[in-house]
Amino acid sequence: VGKTNLVRVALPLQVQEYLEPFHLSVEKLREVSARLRKDLVRGLGKHSHHKAPVKMLPTFVRATPDGTEKGDFLALDLGGTNFRVLHVRVVEEEQKVLKMDSQICAIPKEMMLGPGVQLFDHIAACLNDFLVSQNLKGQTLPLGFTFSFPCEQKEIDKSILIRWTKGFNCSGVEGEDVVKLLKEAIHRRGDYDIGSVAMVNDTVGTMMSCGYRDQSCEIGMIIGTGTNACYMEEIKNVRRVEGEDGRMCINTEWGGFGDDGCLKDIRTEFDVVVDETSINPGIHNFEKMISGMYLGEIVRLLLVRLTENKLLFEGRTSEALLTPDAFETKFMSEIEERDGGLENTQNILTELGLKWDSVDSRIVRLVCNAVSSRSARLCGAALATLANRIRVNRRLDHLKTTVGVDGTVYKKHPNFSEELRATVRLLAPDCDITFLVSEDGSGKGAAMVTAVAQRLAHQTRLLEESDGEVDDEEEED
Ligand code: BGC
């Protein structure tokens, strides 16, 4: 940070003025965290939930893995630009979740915006191809479906899509049960069937897959195309679900934080444009300041503005720079790399048809850094809020916990994770957090959720049977 500041001092004052709103002070981050803390409670409340921007959705996942789960599962993973089918094996002896095989099916852009029936037919066809290639047709394996969009879950196998995010907008799916749509598509084909289904958000999958390795993993976080987190909440606080004892995993859908306008003071004019030109204006404001789908575009808008004001490239833009989404988020990672970043910057600017000098490339790096570090710090503030909540829930002075993390922004960006952790340390000083990067969490995690659900069902059956035995004995007496 010190180094960045030094360079910033030497920049033209006008450039600094554009970047200043992206540098959130610790005080501001504390305020943001306090607002989110209130919003978590609103989302959990029976009556306040309805209007709450942070949805706090019950997942019906009541337990994390205990290491005794086992079996073979199918997993589907839909949430980014690709759709994946996996065959997963959970091996008890080795406490391992093994990916036996997997297949990726691209989802064409038109399909992301077309009729839902077409999307689900495509999913059913990909699953069929996979079953054939794996020689699994004819077996009815339990299936975990990672569907990474906000869903109102009624049970583990009933999940109503609240709204699409991240560039998807298929008609006829919002307000419908996604499991039903999947089963209908499979029945329309009529050439295979599936076993029991468990619906999972990717955050939950990530938490559960890390949970098999580290049983204190009670938070799952994604910072990729979209952003979100889940955590284990006390059931008595989840007012929309019956029950007093135990815990349930809550899918926070923190991407919606700010949708009631509560982040107005930190939104910049560039965030406003990104939101207004997106396919879902007004929705997922927090996500639009943080996740991979939007970061590159924020940078592009800043670069265009600086160029128009003659602070970059001698005032000359290029066709590419003026094209929405042409500045990809992955460029930021390349540009901000510690070694070789300057050279990468210059190559990228050339690719974008821009005429740069050394001051330009330095400014571009600082622009990327301002946007990515705001994202990391906002995420850190949100994660600190969850950790603090878990600590207070359990009346602990000190909490030690693990967060399972996935997503390209977190994994690929050179200083993102460091900056995020530093923020969490500042805002949640009484929480000691281990970060566990999940490998293939949303696929393996879906299998894990299914496995834990099966273990719990098995335990309940055993309990009922032993209750029955006691009853019989009593009757005999
Ligand atoms: C979705 C979440 C998801 C997140 C990360 C968001 O857009 O609403 O359900 O967990 O992206 O994939």
TrEMBL record:
<dbReference type="Pfam" id="PF00349">
    <property type="entry name" value="Hexokinase_1"/>
</dbReference>
<protein>
    <recommendedName>
        <fullName>Phosphotransferase</fullName>
        <ecNumber>2.7.1.-</ecNumber>
    </recommendedName>
</protein>
<dbReference type="GO" id="GO:0005739">
    <property type="term" value="C:mitochondrion"/>
</dbReference>
<dbReference type="Pfam" id="PF03727">
    <property type="entry name" value="Hexokinase_2"/>
</dbReference>
<feature type="domain" description="Hexokinase C-terminal">
    <location>
        <begin position="218"/>
        <end position="452"/>
    </location>
</feature>
<dbReference type="InterPro" id="IPR019807">
    <property type="entry name" value="Hexokinase_BS"/>
</dbReference>
<comment type="similarity">
    <text>Belongs to the hexokinase family.</text>
</comment>
<dbReference type="InterPro" id="IPR022673">
    <property type="entry name" value="Hexokinase_C"/>
</dbReference>
<feature type="domain" description="Hexokinase N-terminal">
    <location>
        <begin position="14"/>
        <end position="212"/>
    </location>
</feature>
<dbReference type="InterPro" id="IPR043129">
    <property type="entry name" value="ATPase_NBD"/>
</dbReference>
<dbReference type="GO" id="GO:0006006">
    <property type="term" value="P:glucose metabolic process"/>
</dbReference>
<keyword id="KW-0808">Transferase</keyword>
<keyword id="KW-0324">Glycolysis</keyword>
<comment type="pathway">
    <text>Carbohydrate metabolism; hexose metabolism.</text>
</comment>
<dbReference type="GO" id="GO:0008865">
    <property type="term" value="F:fructokinase activity"/>
</dbReference>
<dbReference type="GO" id="GO:0004340">
    <property type="term" value="F:glucokinase activity"/>
</dbReference>
<keyword id="KW-0547">Nucleotide-binding</keyword>
<keyword id="KW-0067">ATP-binding</keyword>
<dbReference type="InterPro" id="IPR022672">
    <property type="entry name" value="Hexokinase_N"/>
</dbReference>
<dbReference type="GO" id="GO:0005536">
    <property type="term" value="F:D-glucose binding"/>
</dbReference>
<comment type="pathway">
    <text>Carbohydrate degradation; glycolysis; D-glyceraldehyde 3-phosphate and glycerone phosphate from D-glucose: step 1/4.</text>
</comment>
<dbReference type="GO" id="GO:0001678">
    <property type="term" value="P:intracellular glucose homeostasis"/>
</dbReference>
<dbReference type="GO" id="GO:0005524">
    <property type="term" value="F:ATP binding"/>
</dbReference>
<keyword id="KW-0418">Kinase</keyword>
<dbReference type="GO" id="GO:0006096">
    <property type="term" value="P:glycolytic process"/>
</dbReference>
<dbReference type="InterPro" id="IPR001312">
    <property type="entry name" value="Hexokinase"/>
</dbReference>
<dbReference type="GO" id="GO:0005829">
    <property type="term" value="C:cytosol"/>
</dbReference>
